[in-house]
Write a structure and sequence with these properties.
The protein is of the alpha+beta class. Helices cover 57% and strands 12% of the residues. The chain is built from 15 helices and 9 strands. Strands 3, 4, 5, 6, 7, 8 and 9 form a 7-stranded mixed beta sheet that branches. Strands 1-2 form a two-stranded parallel sheet. The longest helix is centred in the middle third of the chain and has 35 residues. The termini are far apart.
Length: 460
């Protein structure tokens, strides 16, 4: 299964392109606002936002595996910049506020950096704080898998997206302080704008963005070289020659115990052993029938009277020709009845496994950790919340429990992402009730509009 953990070089390139496009949009916004008449500045901002929205939409349609948080944040930066500048100018014209002429795009000179840098700082800060609860992040996790499910690529995207946001926060924060510091202490509003002023308000920002872009380009090139040296890069040629593979993982369960091997070599850290199911196999096919799956696990365990149950499966979007299917194989009786299994392993109590999952997750394989996370999240979410995301039990200290026998009896649907979405956004989070109220308002308005358009109503 190591192929699933490798990184496609084009994925890293696409990730770098995303932040590059965001930075380029800022550069062009400042440059075009200087070249064109100043009153075109909000239009330039809206066009930049439209371009970024198109980028986000195309990424969603193509189901790209790259992270789009930075372009998403830049989109809101440009939208907010355009509307804030328009609102401030309208209020200034109506006499509600008195602002410096450098903030009005009807005056000459107009310095968009004085607005754009602080707005970008605020937006990036909010996105950084709420990055785990953003709609775009929740949708990405549900469609492409959690960070741990995506192997090395997921780890890179998670770490580097956080670094990008921190980098941009510092960049916009420093530029905001520098721009306003110069404007308050060194800029003469009653004098004509000189070359030094234009250099500070336009070209210093452009130079800072270009240097930041060079930094990220060199950083991701070095990451690519490190991955290639460690054999963690899959080239396009290898992808095109790669055959379709279906990986099968079985969890052998008897009572409240699961059969696991605690001494499986970690393929990424030499000399390290992790815990995982020993029942793993690979088939060079695109699909596989339930009958074939049943015969495979019966042959591997030499037990014919077990109950096969589908756990969940996921097609890898990072390596399109690969997929992993997980199954439970429930046995009757007690673990003592199955001591003669030929595959190395031991019966581990589920309570012990949950303890290790909470206290020592690194002792498990990444895939086992992923599967347990999905199982625990879906079951506990169903016990705590209803389908609308509201708590069934109002006491927040309530912590339900479950065991493997309950999984067998209740037949949970682990393939459905509904409960994962509720786990990520529910009534325990701030703003949930307001969002629910807005959704109900939109539905009521939609139903009302349908009623108004009804031919029966019009005939009356």
């Amino acid at each position: 299964m190591k192929d699933l953990e490798k990184v496609n070089g084009s994925q890293l390139l696409s990730f770098w392109k995303n932040i590059s496009v965001g930075i380029l949009v800022l550069i062009l916004t400042l440059v075009f606002s200087r070249l064109f008449p100043f009153y075109f500045s909000p239009i330039i901002g809206l066009l930049a936002a439209a371009f970024l929205y198109t980028l986000l939409y195309n990424n969603k349609v193509r189901r790209s595996s790259s992270c789009m948080v930075v372009p998403y944040a830049m989109f809101y930066c440009m939208i907010l910049y355009a509307f804030v500048s328009i609102i401030l100018n309208v209020l200034d014209i109506w006499g509600f506020i008195a602002m410096p002429k450098e903030l009005s795009f009807f005056n000459d000179p107009y310095m968009p950096a004085l607005l754009l840098m602080p707005i970008c700082f605020v937006v990036i800060s909010v996105v950084f704080i709420r990055r785990k609860n953003l709609t775009i992040c929740i949708d990405c996790k549900l469609s492409r898998g959690l960070t741990i499910e995506r192997g090395k690529l997921g780890e890179i995207l998670n770490i580097e997206t956080r670094l990008q946001l921190i980098n941009l926060m510092w960049l916009f924060g420093i530029l905001s302080v520098f721009m306003w510091g110069y404007f308050v202490f060194f800029y003469y509003q009653d004098a004509n704008v000189n070359n030094r002023d234009w250099y500070i308000f336009v070209w210093v920002n452009v130079i800072a963005f270009v240097l930041d872009e060079i930094y990220f380009a060199s950083r991701y090139y070095n990451i690519y070289l490190d991955l290639k040296e460690n054999g963690e890069i899959i080239t396009e040629e290898e992808l095109s020659d790669m055959t379709t593979k279906t990986y099968l993982r079985f969890y052998l369960i008897c009572g409240n115990k699961v059969y696991l091997n605690t001494h499986i070599a970690d393929p990424y850290i030499q000399g390290k052993f992790v815990t995982d199911t020993p029942f793993i196999t690979k088939r060079n096919v695109n699909g596989i029938t339930t009958a074939d799956v049943s015969s495979i696990i019966k042959r591997m365990t030499d037990i014919n009277n077990g109950e096969l149950r589908f756990f969940y499966g996921r097609k890898s979007l990072d390596i399109a020709k690969h997929r992993i299917l997980r199954y439970f194989y429930f046995l009757d009786g007690s673990p003592e009845d199955y001591k003669d299994l030929e595959i190395e392993g031991e019966w581990i109590d589920f309570d012990t496994l949950k303890y290790v999952y909470q206290k020592q997750p690194k002792s498990m394989s990444m895939t086992l950790l992923t599967d347990l996370s999905r199982m625990v999240t879906i079951i506990l979410t169903q016990k705590i919340f209803n389908e609308d995301g509201y708590r069934k039990v109002k006491v927040k200290s309530y912590r339900p429990t479950f065991d493997l026998q309950e999984i067998r009896d209740k037949n949970y649907d682990f393939q459905d992402n509904k409960w994962l979405r509720i786990a990520m956004y529910n009534s325990d989070l701030k703003g949930f009730h307001l969002r629910k109220w807005m959704e109900k308002f939109r539905l009521v308005k939609k139903d009302y509009n349908k009623e108004e358009q009804s031919p029966w109503r019009q005939s009356r």
